[in-house]
Amino acid sequence: MNRLRALLTLAAAPALALAGLVGNWIARRASVRYFLVSAAYPGYLHRGEAAAFCRYHAQRHCRGRGVDVGAGRWPFPGAHAVEDGAEENAYRLKAAEDSLDYVFSSHCLEHLEDWRGALREWRRVLVPDGILYLYLPHPACAMWHPEVLRHHRWQPEPDRLAGDLTGLGFEIVETSLFPDAYLSFFVVAKKRPAKGDGTPGT
């Protein structure tokens, strides 16, 4: 009996090891649901560099001195790259108030818990009429949804976001309602000058 148990243990060990490896790999990639849903979408959505799909359009609006918040390995041309650091991050930019011509951000805002707080900080550093360019995952793509892609904290929606930006002191310049080739959408807004009491202008 002991010999049989030992043989069964030896036979089962490789299978258990393989199952452990597969389980760890799936856990690192987010969830089983992610794999099931993402199989319906093009492979290039998994490789990053989302900004490549909006760069030429963004360059029409983002000129002068600016930052790319959440730049990753592909910062917006000419922009100062901002990552999640101790001294500078999405919630705290080093730039002075009213000092930047634009803030560009691609597929970053959906990762932030306090995204409205981040937008207020981005508005702070913009000059009056400075440009905010956001490129974000479109809700039509189920792969982006927070219940599937767990590091996404919320799901931006074109109409809702435009309304929130207006309430935060921005004027909408241009927005796309439908998903593009990267299953994403953009919002271009400019900073309205503050009223005399320091609150966002109307």
Describe the protein's architecture and organization:
- This protein is of the alpha/beta class.
- The chain folds into two domains: 2-29; 43-191, Vaccinia Virus protein VP39 (Rossmann fold, 3-Layer(aba) Sandwich).
- 31% of the residues lie in helices and 20% in strands.
- A six-stranded mixed beta sheet has the order 2-1-3-4-6-5.
- The radius of gyration is 22 Å and the shape is elongated.
- The N and C termini lie far apart (83 Å).
- The mean pLDDT is 88.
Concise summary:
The chain is of the alpha/beta class and 202 residues long.
Key features of this structure:
alpha/beta; Rossmann fold; 2 domains; single chain; 31% helix; elongated; 5 helices; 202 residues
**Fraction of residues in H or I helices:** 25-40%
| CATH architecture classification of the largest domain | 3-Layer(aba) Sandwich
The tally of domains stands at: 2
Sheet with the most strands, sense and barrel status: 6 strands, mixed
CATH topology of the largest domain: Rossmann fold
Principal-axis shape: elongated
- Unreliable residue stretches: none
Order of helices and strands: HHHEEEHEHEE
Strand content range: 15-25%
The end-to-end distance, rounded to whole angstroms, is: 83 Å
The total beta strand count reads: 6
Question: What is the C-level CATH assignment of the largest domain?
Answer: Alpha Beta
Strand order of the largest sheet: 2-1-3-4-6-5
CATH homologous superfamily identity of the largest domain: Vaccinia Virus protein VP39
Nearest-integer average pLDDT = 88
Radius of gyration: 22 Å
- Indicate the structural class: alpha/beta
Q: Helix count?
A: 5
